[in-house]
Design goal:
This protein has about 850 residues and is α+β, with helices and mostly antiparallel strands. The protein folds into 5 domains: about 325 residues, Glycosidases (TIM Barrel, Alpha-Beta Barrel), CATH 3.20.20.80; about 70 residues; about 160 residues, Galactose-binding domain-like (Jelly Rolls, Sandwich); about 130 residues, Sandwich (Jelly Rolls), CATH 2.60.120.260; about 100 residues, Jelly Rolls (Sandwich), CATH 2.60.120. Helices cover about 15% and strands about 30% of the residues. The protein has 13 helices and 44 strands. Strands 4-5-6-7-8-9-10-12 form an 8-stranded parallel barrel, surrounded by 4 helices. Strands 20, 33, 37, 39, 42 and 44 form a 6-stranded antiparallel sheet that branches. It has a 6-stranded antiparallel sheet with strand order 22-31-23-28-25-26. β18 and β19 form a beta hairpin. The longest helix is centred in the N-terminal third of the chain and has 20 residues.
Length: about 850
């Protein structure tokens, strides 16, 4: 027996080495990607390395693998790697090689989407700003200066991967690469006219000439030339057909939710709908599916695009912004993945045979010899249905797919969620200042004011109004437009300063005082009532960007800043004074940026006098001790207006809690049945679009941390708090009669007879145990996690059984059957609902 076990472990270990060494030829046929000559079903998830930290990467990757993924997908972000032409950065959070190697170490493949245009709600679509200033350049078209730079960077990345032997053909994990990105969208490619198709052909030929040894894809590119694989992006891709019957059906972006914008509500996508979309794709012949995003992460620094994309890029993904699995989304999709992989042998062997079972009812059968798998779908949005298939009867809820790995038994129905649910919460605490910090400060804060208007020695003057991006080159969000005028009188009480601007936002100061602020709207103008004086008046306009445009034809030419006219309307004599063509003085950025205030070490910080609150253009600083423990950390900016913040010199991004989401349009409970779109399911109406901002644990020291923020419009920093995130409750609700989570059956040890499904609980962190059972009911319980209610039928033994099985352990499993709990109501379908707490 011992020799047998040693032999088993030897072959298991050799198998693991063979898998993680990856050395394989990668090709494709009409069904799938072939790795080492074998077709594979590939379930992928997007994780963008710069939207987390290197310290987070191993855990994110492992949770992806645990969730049933076998591929990690990421874009490559040109502006992160080449911020200055010819000067490359692949260190720290930009260490692409390390990220790819970590995926390989976990036994996962990698899809490297080089682009190098990425869109991704990322600043300038991932392009570095210096690209814009190359003479004669036009982005993403048949333009020699652009193609030269695009090829140079793409080759740089390919060469880097080759040097590290990271392509599968070299023994590495990279099995696919992408060139360009969503160029074939109807609002993009046609706008570039006759030059578009030559550009697409050139991009394809350029990529394949780099000899990566793995296939290339173009997403949303119906005219992708051979051998490039064209792929689908969207909420649903089951109806997608490749542009050749020699190419497989790939889905590069299955949008797991949607991005959040400053001033908008928070979108979310029900897991039942997401699971339905996944199952439908594989039902109808798909073999590679990627979640965009599987972990969304955070737009640190000024990396968010848009404009107005929020700092949080959570995306309602299966792993949340802080690296915690989102339940039941993560767990239910894991069950879906298990069910699909049980079908892999049949799926890769043949094409599906699809037939109608009635209105809105469809069966797809994969049969090869003795191997058989089937998918039964009800695509109706309102009515459940019962269908007959292979001589058996099956119940199909509306908008659901049942997966039958043996063409007989249902492993999973997408509408029946049996996985764990969780309730998470944030615990607030005040900043704990260090005892030796900020001497003489009663509030724990010190401060300094940003000068209104021109304060730096690199100011310059020009006649007329300058476009902002061409002027700042995105070195800063801020550009000052300043002007002095002399008036014979005070202008009168009806005077209005009229400003027309491309935005994105604007603050107007008259004689050093904030007169008004505006965010770009459809009218692209701001009217500010002003009070002037006879004699000299100073007008200082602070124009700012909130992430540069990342999508659209010719987006690099859209511009920002004050375009004019700028006028004083309603003067005493009824006249209008046009200021547009006068000589304006300009300053790129803030004085505090030039002084390096963001790391807290420079500048004349004031802690001796009263802390100014609700004052514009104010820098604040405090020293603090990090919250104890290892729970994810956020800072709650409630009470602040708009600006940017830094922890130990690292930017956590733009904050804007003063921007409130619309009061209407939200639905905390959203019907998953029917086609999803980004406005269908919204929450957080009438609240700040974002109040919590992620601070990675790796950025913090136990004590001696420096927190700096720049407030544009006014706020009270003493209201800022820490927030640590934790799982408050674990819940599960499993039916005695419904299909259980795949593989979760209670089986008799002697006979092997299946006794029924199993309810399983597991605390999210290894150092936690189940401390209490808040609710347990076997019978007819109803409600949702945190609000379970006993039904008319309930076993009196449920609470004690769960308490005995679970309390004190990190995880536990209990069979869902009358053999364990008794039969409190004969002839009634029963289920077990449990809510537990972990500490």
């Amino acid at each position: 027996m011992r020799a047998t076990r040693i032999l088993f472990l030897f072959f298991w270990f050799i198998g693991i080495l063979a898998y993680t060494s990856f050395c394989a030829n990668v090709t494709y046929d009409h069904r799938a990607l072939l790795i080492g000559g074998k077709r594979r079903i590939l379930i992928s998830g997007s994780i963008h390395y710069p939207r987390s930290t290197p310290e987070m990467w191993p855990d994110l990757i492992q949770k992806s693998k645990d969730g049933g993924l076998n591929v990690i997908e990421t874009y490559v972000f040109w502006n992160k790697h080449e911020p200055v032409r010819g000067q490359y950065n692949f260190e720290g959070g930009n260490d692409l090689v390390k990220f790819v190697k970590l995926a390989a170490a976990a036994g996962l493949y990698v899809h490297l989407r080089i682009g190098p245009y990425v869109c991704a709600e990322w600043n300038y679509g991932g392009f570095p700003l210096w690209l814009h200033f190359i003479p004669g350049i036009q982005f993403r078209t048949d333009n020699e200066p652009f193609k030269r730079e695009m090829q140079r960077f793409t080759a740089k990345i390919v060469d880097l991967m080759k040097q590290e032997k990271l392509y599968a053909s070299q023994g590495g994990p990279i099995i696919l690469s992408q060139i360009e990105n969503e160029y074939g969208n109807g609002d993009i490619e046609p706008r570039y006219g006759p030059a578009a198709k030559p550009y697409v052909k050139w991009a394809a030929a350029m990529a394949t000439s780099l000899n990566t040894g793995v296939p290339w894809v173009m997403c949303q590119q119906a005219d992708a030339p051979d051998p490039i694989i064209n792929t689908c992006n969207g909420f649903y891709c089951d109806q997608f057909t490749p542009n050749s019957n020699q190419k497989p059906k790939f889905w590069t972006e299955n949008w797991s939710g949607w991005f959040r914008s400053f001033g908008g509500a928070v979108p979310y996508r029900p897991v039942e709908d997401l699971a339905f979309a996944v199952a439908r794709f594989f039902q109808r012949g798909g073999t590679l599916q990627n979640y965009y995003m599987y972990h969304g992460g955070t737009n640190f620094d000024r990396t968010s695009g848009g404009p107005f994309i929020s700092t949080s890029y959570d995306y309602d993904a299966p792993i949340d912004e802080y690296g915690i699995v989102r339940q039941p989304k993560w767990g239910h999709l894991k069950d879906v993945h298990k069910a699909i992989m049980l079908c892999e042998e049949a799926l890769i062997a043949t094409d599906p045979q699809i037939k109608s079972l009635g209105p809105n009812l469809e069966a797809a059968v994969y049969r090869a010899g003795s191997t058989c798998a089937a998918f039964l779908a009800n695509v109706g949005t309102s009515s459940d249905a019962t269908v007959n298939f292979n001589g058996n009867s099956y119940h199909l809820p509306a908008w659901s797919v049942s997966i039958l790995p043996d063409c007989k038994n249902v492993a999973l129905n997408t509408a029946k969620v049996n996985s764990l649910s969780t309730i998470s919460s944030f615990t607030r605490e005040i900043f704990k200042e260090d005892s030796d910090s900020l001497e003489g400060s009663s509030s724990g804060w010190s401060w300094t004011s940003e000068t209104v208007g021109i304060s730096k020695d690199d100011e310059f003057s020009k006649v007329g109004l300058l476009e902002q991006i061409n002027t700042t080159a995105d070195r800063s969000d801020y550009l000052w437009y300043s002007l002095s005028i002399d008036l014979d009188d005070d202008g009168g009480p009806q005077t209005v300063l009229h400003i027309e601007s491309l935005g994105h936002a604007l603050h107007a100061f008259i004689n050093g005082k904030l007169a008004g602020s505006g965010v770009r709207d459809a009218a692209k103008k701001l009217d500010v009532p002003v009070t002037l004086v006879a004699g000299k008046n100073t007008i200082d306009l602070l124009s700012l960007t909130v992430g540069l445009q990342n999508y659209g034809a010719f987006f690099d030419t859209w511009g920002a800043g004050i375009t004019g006219p700028v006028r004083l309307n309603g003067l005493k004599n009824g006249s209008t004074l046009d200021l547009s063509s006068q000589q304006w003085t300009y300053q790129v950025g803030l004085q505090g940026e030039q002084l390096g205030l963001s790391d807290g070490s420079s500048g004349n910080w004031n802690s001796q006098s009263t802390l100014p609150k609700n004052q514009p253009l104010t820098w604040y600083k405090t020293n603090f001790a990090a919250p104890s423990g290892n729970k994810p950390v956020a800072i709650d900016f409630t009470g602040m207006g708009k600006g940017e913040a830094w922890v130990n010199g690292q930017s956590i991004g733009r904050f804007w809690p003063a921007y409130i989401a619309p009061k209407s349009g939200c639905n905390e409970a959203c019907n998953y049945r029917g086609a999803y779109n980004s406005n269908k399911c919204l929450k957080n109406c009438g609240k700040p679009s974002q109040s919590l901002y992620h601070v990675p644990r790796s950025w913090l020291r136990p004590s001696g941390n420096i927190f700096v923020l720049f407030e544009e419009i006014g706020g009270d920093p003493t209201l800022i708090t820490f927030a640590t995130k934790q799982i408050e409750s674990l819940c599960a609700h499993v039916s005695e009669s419904h299909p259980p989570p795949v593989g979760s059956w209670n089986t008799d040890a002697e006979s092997g007879r299946k006794l029924g499904p199993v309810l399983s609980l597991e605390c999210p962190n290894p150092d936690q145990v189940i401390s209490s059972i808040k609710f347990a009911s076997f019978g007819t319980p109803h409600g949702t996690c945190g609000n379970f209610i006993h039904g008319r039928c309930s076993s009196k033994r449920a609470l004690s059984i769960l308490h005995k099985a679970c309390v004190g352990s990190r995880s536990c499993s209990v069979g869902v059957s009358v053999d364990i709990f008794g039969n409190p109501c004969r002839g009634v379908a029963k289920s077990l609902a449990v809510e537990a707490a972990c500490t």
